[in-house]
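Ticket #4471: complex job returned nothing on first submit. Input attached below:
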Amino acid sequence: MEQPVRSDHGVAVVRKPRGRAGKKLAPYLLSLPATFWLVVLFLIPLVMMLFFALETGDVLHGYSLTWNWGEFGQQLSLHSTEFIRSIWYAGAATIICLVVSFPVSYWIAFHGGDRKNFFLLMLLVPFFVSFVIRSLAWQFLLSDQGILLGTLKNLHLIPQNFHILATSTAVIAGIAYNYLPFTALPLYVALERIDYRLIEAAGDLYCSKREAFMRVVLPLCIPGIFAAFLLTFVPAVGDYLNQQILGGVSNTMIGTIIQTDFLVNQDYPAASALSAILLLGVLVGIFLYGRLLGSRTIEEYV
Amino acid sequence: MATVATPAPDKTVEQEAVRRPRKPPWWKGKILPTYVALVLIYLVVPIFVMILYSFNVSHARLPQVSFKWQGFTLQWYKEWNGIPGLVPAFKLTLILASLAAITSAIIGTLLALALVRHRFRGKGATEQVMFLNIAAPEIVVGAALLSFFVILSTNVAILHSALHPGFFDLFLAHVAFCIAFVAITVRARLAGFDRSLEEAAGDLGANAWVTFQKVTLPIIWPGVLAGALMAFALSIDDFVISNFVAGNVETFPLWVYGAVRVGIPPQVFVLGTVIFVVGFGIALANLFTGQRKKKQQKA
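Support reply: We reran it on our side without changes. The output follows.
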């Protein structure tokens, strides 16, 4: 593209190999592959899924678009238990993650010193093992005769019929474990950004350490807390692997229902409606977040 | 849970001897580090379990890890290829992750360049889509892609064989969920980029391509590499989306998931251990060679 763009003045243009037209086109050319990929393989599928929810029919006779809006209400009432349970499990796990990881992130951010990156890597350690295997390892650990409970039972520290697997505790614990790094990292980013001099200043102004924490540190990391909440809660609410591996039939979450409807029952409209509802709920949450704290912030934490 | 295991009596004595006006209690400044250590240990526990059970003896007729510890063996490492279907699934996962990582690294880097360097129509919308892509629950993305592939392959005859759930679909889907992560990682690297370097190259007679090749790319390379590694990790670990679009093809996580009901062969833990050791080894090496890891973590 050495060809200079013709210009009425024709002076300065020769020095610049790329003309104005090239400059204007550049961002589009650069972003084209990504935008194309995201539109075709993310946005359009999402829209198509919404339409699928409005169709009726079955897998043998095909589906036709009948604008069956009733599907949403029907699925919502049919699976309200699973929806509520998913929100409860994910919410409980998220709160556990926040409480557990806040001190860790705080310590790494303020006292990590030169080894900050090492500690962060240690926080990310679970990601070096496959998600399925991670849950599986907890199954081994918590199984009735496994190394933990089996040993405790042999020592008669817990009753023989004690079990954790197939309870909601196991599912919540599994989710909390798997998503802890998603909570800890945004918290760390938020805390790390806090200028330590502000805390010192609070001290100089006769703030007790506790007060400085409550009135300086905590308010400053509220965006981080929200980001952590979203980044943990959103994947957790759609999670079904932990429930299937660590839980039982009484712990069914909405993810399992969607998966079964899609892959086993092949009831595409029902499954599409359910996932559309799930997506909508998540979007409302994100929208509220954006309204409260600005939409830029969350991207920075991703 | 014992928060602080060992009190340090000598230290208390020492401190008393000094007789400071206000003696801090011996546990001061120790609770938090101990807690952090406990949490980090907790994070490692399942990995430890995986590695441990990859050495567990099994007497079952079909090789299967038993929940009970039955003794140490290296048998499964010797017979790592002993389970039909497992190694092909593992290879497929590695190939898929490599292809997805390379593709999304290229596409994502271009997108990051466009986002940082230029103002253009649709920039805001692109950023919104990226954000949505990251924020949407995986199960929704997987379900949407499955609907999409099903509709296309049943209604459009030409696409039938191409988009029938399988490897190609997996590739398309994996790149789709990696692009945004790569773009954000590279963008973080580009943010601190000194553009006068490029101008200098231009002044010295380099054209746009040479400037990109010799100046821009070397500087953003760590970001690109970090993005590619992240995409690789995301892809190799993906279960939810793959479960929807894989059809009859099995990736390693899908194979393991399928085996849960029948019983996990110890080879699964062997391969899991190998992934862990290699991945964590690279990360540690990277950390100690003083790469700019910080940016990558933040991104």
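Chain A touches chain B through 96 residues (CB under 8 Å). Closing as resolved unless it happens again.
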